[in-house]
Amino acid sequence: MATLTPVGVGHLHRLGHLHRLGVAAAVVDGRHVAGDVSVDVRSGVVDAVGLSPPGRGTAIPGLVDLQVNGGGSCDLRTAGVEEVRELAVDLAAAGATAFQPTIHSAPVEVYRSALSRFDGARSSGHGGARILGAHLEGPCLAPEWAGAHDPAHLLPVDPALLDDLLSAGRVAMVTIAPELDGALDVISDLCRRGVVVAIGHTDADADTVRAALDRGATYLTHCWNAHRRFTPRDPGPAGVALSDPRLTVGLIADGQHVAVETVLLTLGAAAGRVALTTDSVVWTDDPGVADAPLRGGRCSPVELLRRLRSSGLGWDVVVDACCTVPARVAGLGPHTLEPGTTADLVVLDDALAVVRTLVGGVEVAAPGAPAPD
User: Fold this and answer.
1) Which residues pair with 100 in a beta bridge?
2) Can you give the pTM of this predicted structure?
3) What's the mean per-residue pLDDT of the chain?
4) Which of 25, 90, 94, 248 is the 20 to 30 Å CA partner of 84?
């Protein structure tokens, strides 16, 4: 490879199909590797890491969010195709290279319509973060753990209904309460069809959670929130999540849903199995109302990353939870900066602000990049 003149962060230096990011270091498989990174934009893969001379800032794999209900004024249950595209661009500017549009409980016709619009946005060459298959958070959830969901929209388990929803658009994940009548059989069927089954909004005890895992469930939706509470003799979903390696643990580490001590406990007990998510929504409640129920998150993907770093966690743990583990759940393949892997990555400055985001080697957002000289 030809030697290229280094540039500061905020400039892509080009020579043919190889582009240098101008970073000082990269996080590669949890290791902090000093030196610049080059990307082959022709094939959309990482070309090399550890290049000299270095620039400024750090490159990491792109952030992946498995639960995005909306953001700003965009409610994904009702958003049009263009609004979904715009949200994908906004998320890329916040460091995400992929996200699962999530539909929380709503009338069945809303599910159908939203799934069709997601498919339209996904197929349109929208730019921004990759729009993954949808996450259906409901409608088969436990009314006693409805949380912010409208109990009027929660339904009994009905295989025909789930067939109908899966035929309405691309579905990647379904959150279900496994203690509901018929849920375990539906979990088996969904897993056979390649859908990731998540346990959530549930009153399941530990035995029922393990029965769901035996049927193929692999994910817990927002651990510690909206499910049966952990007690010493009744550990419930959280107890299984922390102790059973079959389960990946979703966690909203935004400083509101769980305390920092709980975040650290979860990351320590379930090391390599925690996937941070924003659970972002459109916020209409007054944030100053102290007793207002939790209705999803307000943090952006990169803000979650900054929270983990400010807690003293190393790059290996942070990248694992924000990038690698959720990418694995989403079936994105190797999500690393090893040469030859897909160049879905984000460049951060020293203050951990997003400078630019690349998807498949193509720059899709550059909120912190200075204008070219």
Assistant:
1) none
2) 0.92
3) 91
4) 248
53 pLDDT above the threshold of 90:
yes
Tokens of 48: 């090399």
Rounded CA gap, 372 and 11, in Å?
A: 7
Residue 236's contacts (CB-CB under 8 Å, 6 or more residues apart) are 204, 205, 206, 209, 227, 228, 229, 230
CA 57 to chain centre: 23
Q: How many CA atoms lie within 13 A of 216 on its CB side?
A: 17
DSSP-assigned letters across all residues of 286-302? -TT-TTPPP-SB---HH
In the predicted model, what is the mean pLDDT of residues 257-282? 95
CATH number of 13-61+337-365: 2.30.40.10
CA angle at residue 131 from 241 to 302, to 5 degrees?
65
A 10 A CB-CB count for 181 gives: 9
Give the per-residue pLDDT at 15: 58
User: What count of other Cβ atoms lies within 10 Å of the Cβ of residue 347?
Assistant: 29
Contact 115, 170 (CB under 8 A): yes
- Tell me if domain 13-61+337-365 and domain 63-329 are identical in fold: no
Q: Are 200 and 220 in contact (CB under 8 A)?
A: yes
5 pLDDT band (50/70/90 cuts)?
very low
Distance CA 130, CA 305 (A): 19
User: Cis (ω within 30 of 0) for the bond into 139?
Assistant: yes
Domain 63-329 has CATH 3.20.20.140: yes
Q: Which residues contact 102 (CB under 8 A, 6 or more apart)?
A: 67, 68, 69, 76, 134, 135, 136, 137, 279
Alpha-carbon distances, residue 308 vs 71, 133, 215, 303 (angstroms): 21, 27, 33, 9
Residue 226 has pLDDT above 60, yes or no: yes
Beta strands 74-75; 70-71: pairing state = antiparallel
For residue 222, give the nearest of 326, 117, 127 by alpha carbon. 326
- Residue ranges of the domains in the chain? 13-61+337-365, 63-329
Per-residue tokens: 34: 């000093």
Report the C-alpha gap between 318 and 29 in whole angstroms: 11
